[in-house]
Amino acid sequence: MAAAELERLRMAGAGMAIAVLTSGGDAQGMNAAVRAVTRMGIYVGAKVFLIYEGYEGLVEGGDNIKQANWLSVSNIIQLGGTVIGSARCKAFTTRAGRLRAARNLVEHGITNLCVIGGDGSLTGADIFRSEWAGLLEELVREGQISEEVAKKNCRLNIVGLVGSIDNDFCGTDMTIGTDSALHRIMEVIDAITTTAQSHQRTFVLEVMGRHCGYLALVSGLASGADWLFIPESPPEDGWEDLMCERLGETRSRGSRLNIIIIAEGAIDRSGKPISSNYVKDLVVQRLGFDTRVTVLGHVQRGGTPSAFDRVLSSKMGMEAVMALLEATPDTPACVVSLSGNQSVRLPLMECVQVTKDVQKAMDEKRFEEAIQLRGRSFENNWNIYKLLAHQKPAQEKSPFSMAILNVGAPAAGMNAAVRSAVRIGICQGHTIYVVSDGFEGLAKGQVREVGWHDVAGWLGRGGSMLGTKRTLPKTCMEKIVENVRKFNIQGLLVIGGFEAYEGVLQLVEARGQYEELCIVMCVIPATISNNVPGTDFSLGSDTAVNAAMESCDRIKQSASGTKRRVFIVETMGGYCGYLSTVTGIAVGADAAYVYEDPFTIHDLKANVEHLTDKMKTDIQRGLVLRNEKCHEHYTTEFLYNLYSSEGKGIFDCRINVLGHLQQGGAPTPFDRNYGTKLGVKAVLWMSEKLQQVYTKGRVFANSGDTACVIGLRKKVVAFSPVTELKKVTDFEHRLPQEQWWLNLRLMLKMLANYQISLTEYISGQMEHVTRRTLSIEKGF
How deeply is 476 buried, as exposed, middle or buried, from its count of CB atoms within 10 A (0-12, 13-18, 19+)? Predict the structure, then answer.
């Protein structure tokens, strides 16, 4: 965006009044959206009003509508629920109620409304907008406002953000609150799994989703549930016999527990509800298993928002203000949505209509169509769950064998990828080997064949069950080649970080010397640093961001108690600043120093001055993040000494080095599902390539496209040849030469510090904050 255009945009905000409200059921992340709308609105020169208690506050007016300042939304990004309240409002469903609401908005000169809620709340906003002119005319007739005031406020602009834990709104891949709800569900499932194993119990877990089975589906995929009920795909008649048969089968093969997940809106083919208690009684009567029911209920709405929901909400909030600034009389009410990995604006009522079409298809028992209407991601999740939940014999034994290994530092989600790769490989009829301790283990012959049940229970485990080391092939090439020959390995799936990419590149470059290496190879990027070329997002980075975020939340809480304290927190990531940047956005950090965004002593001085000014307000705390290799000389110790010296008498400093806690812990729901999907897609791609290069009873793969990195690139999963990626990789600093997340840097600065200069905002990559390229880190 050019400087002149940006200046015009800022001028467009002057004199505007924007109001934001939350309505319907609360969802984690709503506060982050309120914060972003408020601060972006203030940044562009508009007046921003907070409407308390949703539409009820809009109708009642008075103290329910308050003008906000920059500090009004400080320290709320980490809070669950909505600090401005939400209430169901019958009055707003009537014209008389909407007339009162219009009067209250006009009183404050508000003609721009941002509504955060579900489809019902957003539909109400659109009705309000369509009636606006008529409502003002009525207010003029009744003498409540003058014609001049009516003329000045003649148009109401509406933008919606979807806040719903059910992810039941069509047109967006993820709604605000969904990821956090999945976190709550997986925390419960992980806890229940341990007690279920102890007592050899079956647990029936009921999750929210009266009309949409997304939470049940994704939690079932992330936990490896034995059976799953969702309203979009009722089980076939006679499901009771099949379910009990499968549960019994699982126990007979050594499993000590069964997990059944049921959406609250689950039905059978005739439309009759299937209750969790009915399923429990069925298992007890037919199998005699000790069975318990757990209804999660509103715990799914509670708790702190996940990192993803905080970042998503912040981006959507900024985009909402952009949409209001650019609105014209002909612009329909829009909703800010997530498509693939981009934020987009879509016509609100078109999305509402498609959402209604899903329910209509379900009511009319067109269930396959209902799944398709939910979107490609929903359909893929359902198909992959069915593939991996129960073993299906391969139609025929294939002539191919594959080996799977982990390389580099451990990352959450590695085990999920191994599990899905093993199981889909067995479904394809391949012989599947796993290798312990990476390339070093391959060189030592630590190779064993695995079966379907050998990877049971791996989904929720952190670290690497196979063991992983950083050893590269060039140190033991001869022995690796020997064991590739010995075990007749024709496909190699390497799951790991930059070492995994570099290792496969070394194997490919050695093909001319060793014919045994003319095999199909694939890299699944798995590293908390998110620094592997060929993908926007690596396995493990979501878990690491959440781990860092949770630590920073606690640190901020500590600073709130002691007052006038600044914490300098060091994160991992090597030279890659992804972890620092995204964590910084998620916790509302005052600054985040990274290698890719060079900084000078003048920048450090400006940050110290900002914190000095901040201590004069009610928010007497500071949080500064530093990537471990962001600068050769400006070390964490240096920053501590500088801040301590310059802030002497105003604030004191403390250092926290987060260290390896960022690598530990159970994988997040996203990393479990992302790993599962990448494992499936990688093996299917390898199977296809093996068929293509199989001639005369042997595999001979020597072209560049037979050794690839699988990755999520914007909207699609792509396979990029390792040799081509070499051209766009900085091997000295172990980084891709271009990194999408750098687009987030200015958003971090702007939402943290309202004193950011116009010049700084233009420099860098301002154009990436516009709606068409505002990337999002999740969407697979």
Answer: middle
∠ CA 354-360-365 to the nearest 5 degrees?
130
CA-CA distance, 30 to 494, in Å (whole number)? 39
φ, ψ of residue 422 to 5 degrees: the values are -60, -45
Question: Is 527 annotated for ligand binding?
Answer: yes
**Cα–Cα distance between 555 and 482 in angstroms, integer?**
52
DSSP 3-state of 618: coil
Q: Would you say 124 is a known binding-site residue?
A: no
Distance (Å, whole) CA 331 – CA 582 = 33
The amino acid that residue 34 corresponds to is V
CA 229 to chain centre: 24
What b-and-e string marks burial along 158-193, b requiring 16 or more CB atoms within 10 Å of the CB?
Answer: bbbbbbbbbbbbbbbbbbbbbbbbbbbbbebbeebb
Distance, in Å, from the CA atom of 61 to the CA atom of 342, rounded to the nearest integer, reads 36
Q: Residue 166 catalytic?
A: yes
pLDDT at 709: 98
775 DSSP assignment: B
Half-sphere exposure of 581 (CA within 13 A, CB side): 24
**Six-digit token pair at 757?**
């200069």
Distance CA 330, CA 323 (A): 13
DSSP string, 227-252: EEE-TTSPPPTTHHHHHHHHHHHHHH
Which residues pair with residue 730 across a beta bridge? 735
The number of beta carbons lying within 10 Å of the beta carbon of residue 74 is 16
| DSSP for residue 333 | P
Cα–Cα dist 601/590, whole Å: 16
Q: Please state, in angstroms and rounded to a whole number, the distance separating the CA atoms of residues 507 and 453.
A: 31
Q: Which pLDDT score, from 0 to 100, does residue 10 have?
A: 62
631 appears as a binding residue in the annotation: no
Is 299 annotated to bind a ligand? Reply is yes
**166 is an annotated ligand-binding site residue:** yes
Dihedral angle, C-alpha 267, 268, 272, 278, nearest 10 °: -80
| Per-residue model confidence as pLDDT tens digits over 69-116 | 998 999 999 999 999 999 889 999 999 999 999 999 999 999 999 999
> β-strand 468-469 against 401-407: which pairing, if any?
parallel
Residue 621 marked ligand-binding: no
Backbone angles phi, psi at 626, to 5 degrees: -135, 120
As a whole number of angstroms, the distance between CA 202 and CA 217 comes to: 19
Per the DSSP assignment, residues forming a β-bridge with 683 are: none
**3-class secondary-structure state, position 327:** coil
The 10 Å CB-count burial string (b at 16+, else e) for 719-728 is: bbbbeebeee
Contacts of 119 (CB under 8 A, 6+ apart): 162, 164, 168, 169, 351, 352, 355
Q: Which residue has the tokens 């893929």?
A: 380
Average pLDDT per block of 10 residues along the chain, 780 residues long? 47 84 94 95 93 96 95 93 92 95 96 94 94 95 94 94 93 93 96 89 94 96 95 94 94 90 95 95 95 93 95 93 90 87 86 92 93 91 92 86 97 97 96 97 97 93 95 96 97 97 97 96 98 96 96 87 88 96 95 95 91 83 94 96 92 93 92 97 97 92 96 90 96 95 87 52 38 34
CA 771/CA 692 separation, integer angstroms: 41
Residue 694 tokens read as 């199989």
> Does 485 show up as a binding residue in the annotation?
no
Residue 125 CB neighbours (<10 A): 26
Is 661 known to sit in a ligand binding site?
A: yes
- 166, 179, 309, 597: which is the annotated catalytic residue? 166
Residue 250 to residues 191, 331, 393, 453, 456: CA-CA distances in angstroms? Answer: 20, 56, 15, 9, 10
Residue type present at position 563: K
Q: What is the pTM of this model?
A: 0.93
Query: How far, in Å, CA of 156 to CA of 166, rounded?
Result: 29
The helix/strand/coil state of 53 is coil
